[in-house]
Design a protein that fits this description.
This protein is mostly helical and 505 residues long. It has 20 helices and no strands. It has two domains: 7-230, no CATH class; 247-505, no CATH class. 30% of the residues are buried.
Length: 505
């Protein structure tokens, strides 16, 4: 199809409708399909089984989650298509991308308004909330990365503003005025950033000044599971500002310390670093955590009793450590450690076999021991440090023993998943995405349930079905650990059968 020719309205409309499907991968399409379907079913279930007068507000929030995700990670890909079309001097394709944005915005907004409005919902609230989710999702990926970090604290800041400024609640008609003002600001930001990214040299934007959309494009993150295999750790590090660049520690690297030499060869976060280097490398994680404490204090501002406010802040920090840091920290550590090994052993070049000639490795058995020590040493220590923080927060929160056991099992399972994947890579028994994807999906679901379900016991009115659910989770962990042990054994036998471990897959 010639995108430069003066197309008929029918052809132009078809190109606009196909624009988001052409600018993203098939895996993202399936993800969005399941997410939209699941959230729609959840919104309908709330409408059927809820007896509260404002049930439609909860249904709208559930739908807003899916539409916000779509307008953050799927619809903005049309901007990437428009940028490429502008550089290639294809104005027809550029117009199709812009038109497609409007063609998908109208049904995303009108469909929930008409359906929920027919069921008795206030159509003004539904329209405004859905529009805010769409504009907010778009702004999240178009704004620079440091703005995206601030947007992540928006719910907590909004809760604090409700107490300090006495803002009206969601169901109050006065909220429509505040919501309309916020919507106009977001739409203006989206329009200005779209125009700016379209006309500027976006490839030169790096680090925290680059938009989230361009970061995801460089990392392959808009393409789904396979994009994780295309991450370049060196490129990600170079995108950071100078004060966040890690400093390597090359002391004691040589034949007397083959493990440190292998860590230098592996690179990435395996690289030995000084204390300042570790702080610089972990700055993207530590800075949000340090910001979390004053944000939670601001969120609890205005409480009648100071002691109650302090307790709420400490409880929120404990929930944040046990919940978000435990879940995302544990899973990311496991995935990134296995990913570095996967990338090194995937490249077919002379670099990997030359590692077998490093002085000090010794025979095949000593070589395997040094490689396993280098591959597992740093990740396992980081996981155990994270486990200590999570257990300390769980004990301070006075969680029951079974809940603490589930939280600990989740972290040990992350270590097991990392070990199984690394051993299979080193042993030449490479796990395909058809195997890895279900493992990480099940691991993520069990991780979230085992981390957040015990937190239900911290409420003033604990749930009665908490104990049976915790025993069911314990049984699921036993099955998953058995599967990971089988995979690890399979990788270990493959590693023993190899003449030396430095063979590309």
């Amino acid at each position: 199809m010639d995108m430069n020719a003066p197309d008929s309205p029918r052809i132009a409309l078809g190109s606009a409708l196909l624009a988001p499907w052409r600018s993203s991968r098939r895996s993202l399409h399936w993800l969005m399909l399941f997410l939209m379907l699941g959230c729609s079913l959840g919104a309908m279930a709330i409408g059927v089984y809820s007896s509260k007068p404002h049930w439609w507000l909860a249904s709208t929030m559930v739908y807003c989650f899916s539409v916000g995700f779509a307008w953050a990670f799927w619809m903005p890909t049309m901007l990437l298509l428009a940028i490429d079309a502008r550089r290639l001097r294809l104005p027809g394709m550029q117009r199709a991308a812009a038109l497609g944005l409007w063609l998908y915005a109208l049904p995303s907004l009108l469909l929930p308004v008409l359906v929920l409005g027919a069921c008795g919902a206030d159509m003004r609230y539904v329209a405004e909330l859905v529009a805010l989710a769409m504009a907010g999702g778009m702004a999240f990926v178009l704004l620079p990365r440091w703005c995206a970090m601030v947007i992540g604290f928006a719910p907590a800041l909004g809760s604090g503003l409700h107490r300090l400024a006495h803002l009206p609640p969601w169901s109050d008609p006065r909220w429509l005025v505040w919501g309309m003002a916020a919507l106009l600001v977001l739409l203006l930001i989206d329009a200005l950033r779209w125009r700016q990214l379209l006309r500027s040299d976006a490839d030169k934007e790096l680090g925290f000044t680059s938009s989230m959309l361009l970061q995801l494009r460089r990392q392959g993150g808009t393409g789904g599971w396979n994009g994780l295999q295309q991450l370049d750790g060196g490129q990600l590090i170079r995108q950071r500002p100078d004060w966040m660049q890690p400093r390597a520690n090359l002391g004691k690297v040589g034949p007397q310390s083959p493990v440190r030499a292998l860590r230098v060869a592996l690179g990435g976060w395996y690289m030995p670093k000084t204390l300042a280097g570790h702080l610089r490398a972990t700055a993207p994680v530590l800075l949000p955590i340090l910001l979390y404490i004053p944000v939670m204090a601001f969120m609890q501002a205005g409480e009648a009793r100071h002691g109650h406010a302090v307790r709420s802040v400490l409880l929120s920090i404990g929930i944040g450590v046990v919940g978000w840091l435990g879940v995302f920290g544990g899973l990311m550590l496991a995935a990134m450690a296995a990913l570095v090994i996967h990338q090194r052993w995937k490249r077919v070049n002379a670099e990997l076999p030359l590692l077998a000639l490093l002085p000090g490795l010794g025979d095949a058995r000593a070589c395997r021991h040094a490689l396993l020590h280098a591959a597992f040493g740093a990740p396992v220590k980081a996981q155990l440090l994270l486990l200590a923080c999570v257990l300390a927060a769980a004990i301070v929160m006075h969680l029951p023993p079974l809940a603490i056991l589930l939280v600990a099992l989740a972290q040990f399972a992350a270590i097991g998943a990392m070990a199984a994947q690394v051993l299979c890579t080193l042993g030449g028994r490479q796990l395909h995405m058809g195997v890895l994807a279900p493992i990480y999906v099940v691991l993520t679901v069990l991780f979230c349930l085992s981390t957040f379900v015990p937190l239900l016991g911290t409420d003033n009115h604990p749930w009665d079905g908490l104990a049976p659910l915790e025993h069911g989770l314990l049984a699921c962990w036993v099955v998953l650990v058995a599967a990971l042990l089988w995979l690890a054994r399979r990788g270990w036998r493959g590693l023993l059968a190899r003449p030396h471990p430095f063979l590309a897959n």
